[in-house]
């Protein structure tokens, strides 16, 4: 199974992609692409060899808020951040805030911000064949995977690691070390070097987990809403320890 993780940036042609080869619960990091254009990303998602992709931006819009218009998706709107911000959160955002346990590390996370990255993701998904996009993440190729949610579920540092300067680098190293340790690896074995690449890797891992029974099912009462608004997939407890990186297996 080919699993892709996509860190969606706010501007056109600045996605970061990590590609994993995944078999059952064993995976190997295949490629890290620091800069991917929108055309390259769409080609990768349409490729029949790509089985599932975790994306870090919202894949749906709150039902209570008007859908984004094409005017919001112009380069000028993205560049100047002149985008409409919903005044409400999605059901999945509220559910995550209520149900994800707080770890010892980090300061928490708030409702997802609907800005240029969300609008850009909406535009990209509209260009994919319909069979690729199931906003619940249960079918199709797309799984919404917020790195902060996954890291918090894994009881790892989940905020501040994308900040510039030494504080951000320290938090990034702590998060990477915690993830690597949970899988029996060294941080260097993760194959990523900055916060965007790390987010793409987390998104890929969550997407793979969603296809192998390692994420929490959507509560039945929220499925109908998730079809429209999207759903953030939450890894189950100890899911990191359930994975077997190919490098660890080979070393054994």
Give me the secondary-structure topology.
Layout (H helix, E strand, L loop, with lengths): L1 E6 L7 E9 L2 E11 L1 H9 L3 E6 L19 H6 L10 H9 L16 H11 L15 E3 L2 H7 L11 H18 L12 H17 L11 H7 L9 H4 L1 E2 H6 L1
Parallel strand pairs: 1-4, 3-6, 4-5
Antiparallel strand pairs: 1-2, 2-3
Description of the structure:
This protein is an alpha/beta fold and 252 residues long. 37% of the residues lie in helices and 15% in strands. It contains 10 helices and 6 strands; from the N terminus they run βββαβαααβαααααβα. Strands 5-4-1-2-3-6 form a 6-stranded mixed beta sheet. The chain is globular. The chain starts with a strand and ends with a helix. Residues 70-85, 103-111 and 248-252 have low confidence and may be disordered.
Question: Can you describe this structure in just a few lines?
Answer:
The chain has 252 residues and is of the alpha/beta class. It contains 10 helices and 6 strands, in the order E-E-E-H-E-H-H-H-E-H-H-H-H-H-E-H. The chain has a 6-stranded mixed sheet with strand order 5-4-1-2-3-6.
Number of helices: 10
Q: Helical proportion?
A: 25-40%
Uncertain regions spanning at least 5 consecutive residues: 70-85, 103-111, 248-252
N-to-C CA distance: 23 Å
Strand order of the largest sheet: 5-4-1-2-3-6
Largest sheet: 6 strands, mixed
The Cα radius of gyration reads 17 Å
- What fraction of the residues are assigned to beta strands by DSSP? 5-15%
The quaternary structure here is single chain
Structural class: alpha/beta
Strand tally, please?
6
What series of H and E elements makes up the topology? EEEHEHHHEHHHHHEH
Rough outline: globular
